[in-house]
Write a structure and sequence with these properties.
With 378 residues, this protein is an alpha/beta fold. The chain is 54% helix and 13% strand. It has a seven-stranded mixed sheet with strand order 6-5-4-7-8-10-9, sandwiched between helices. Strand 5, helix 13 and strand 6 form a beta-alpha-beta unit. Helix 2 crosses helix 3, helix 5 crosses helix 6 and helix 11 crosses helix 13. The longest helix has 29 residues.
């Protein structure tokens, strides 16, 4: 009881301090003082820059979209080019291309070079090494359309929702009836961005200690192929909707894993998972679904695993406060999609415990923003 009283006292003190902070930061008089006083001036400048970035963020993202659609980064792969050359290739007036390239340089996507040329900046070079990012940038046109009126979206007012149509399985009515044509666009997008996530998961957990891996919601088999390359003796299984499963069979056969891998069609909302695996992976699956579906999925995973079998979850996860960029981005994205929400490690641990899993641990990943990893035992 004393411990509970102490924790509540700490919360009350914290709330009081934050109230005072908010009062001061919202005061124009205090803002002027903070900007002038030498000890607080760096903080005031940093806060002003952060607020400006929030206001200008849409413009930043559209600069990135233009660079991707005009193939700017790929053109500069072999070295810097003059503005006139890039303008001619893009069929854009020179002055307009200069505006774009200057904007991209201010965002570290490009750099100004000698003789009025532009080359790759550190972020533009990173884009070339991660083609999945460019695919997501193109895909964001649907997200921007849904967020054109964010208040209407939050209120649930009638209107076309492009993300809900793009991810048709978000409609729980009959996901197993989706055709190959219906699932191909999102399957291709997931495939393009899967290598980054697979690298984080496989760097955090080795599947070589297991004899058989079942990847639930495994898409076109990209993660399964990467895991199979890490562990050459590992038997491979994939479970996904019929339309996706057909794509996975072809991809696994092309990768030379047709004899080593088996693919099962079904929906984890209605069908039992295949048995025989001692490790099951859920890679970018959990955050797409609401809590009741996730608990149902965890129950099916536990039923399919043997005693001491292992579940591996890999996906972007929010911070405990919910105030981090991952929480902000996926919170709005999944709301527009109509299903799921970003969850913290602690929230997933609680749901796993509720589902009967034990020895639940977070594994350190190289870039947690791309994917965090949780491992649990049945």
């Amino acid at each position: 009881m004393a411990l509970s009283d102490g924790m509540e006292s700490n919360r009350v003190f914290s709330d009081g301090w934050r109230g005072l902070r908010d009062f001061l930061l919202s005061s124009r008089r205090f803002q002027r003082f903070a900007a002038a006083f030498p000890l607080t001036r760096p903080i005031a400048r940093r806060r002003a820059a952060q607020l400006f970035d929030l206001c200008a963020g849409f413009v930043y993202s559209q600069v990135l979209v233009a660079c991707v659609r005009l193939n700017v980064f790929a053109q500069l792969r072999d070295g810097a080019l003059p503005v006139a050359t890039m303008a001619a290739r893009a069929s854009v007036p020179v002055d307009a291309m200069t505006t774009l390239l200057d904007a991209a340089a201010s965002l570290q996507l490009l750099e100004r070079r000698s003789r009025a040329r532009y080359g790759l900046g550190p972020l533009g070079a990173a884009m070339l090494g991660n083609p999945g990012v460019a695919a997501m940038v193109e895909h964001h046109a649907a997200l921007y359309a849904d967020l054109a009126d964010p208040v209407a979206l939050l209120r649930g007012e009638p209107g076309e929702r492009r993300l809900a149509g793009y991810w048709p399985y978000a409609d729980r009515a009959a996901p197993s009836t989706l055709t190959r044509e219906a699932v191909s666009p999102y399957t291709a997008l997931m495939s393009a961005s899967q290598p980054m996530v697979a690298e984080m998961v496989l760097g955090a957990y080795s599947f070589a200690r297991h004899h058989c891996l079942l990847d639930v919601g495994g898409g076109d088999g990209s993660f399964l192929i990467a895991a199979g390359q890490q562990a050459p003796r590992l038997a491979l299984k994939l479970f996904d909707l019929p339309g996706v499963a057909a794509i996975a069979r072809e991809r696994l056969a092309t990768a030379g894993l047709g004899q080593r891998a088996s693919v099962t069609e079904g929906s984890f909302l209605a069908d039992p998972l295949p048995s025989g695996a001692d490790v099951i992976s859920l890679i970018r699956v959990v955050h797409d679904h609401d809590d009741d579906v996730v608990l149902q999925l965890f129950a099916r995973v536990r039923e399919a695993l043997p005693r001491n079998g292992v579940l591996v979850i890999g996906e972007p996860m929010s911070g405990a406060s919910g105030a981090d960029p991952i929480g902000a981005y996926f919170g709005m994205y999944l709301h527009a999609m109509g299903s799921g929400r970003p969850r913290s490690v602690a929230a997933l641990q609680s749901m796993l415990e509720q589902s009967g899993f034990t020895d639940i641990r977070e594994r350190s990943s190289r870039i947690p923003m791309i994917a965090k990893v949780i491992v649990a035992r049945a």
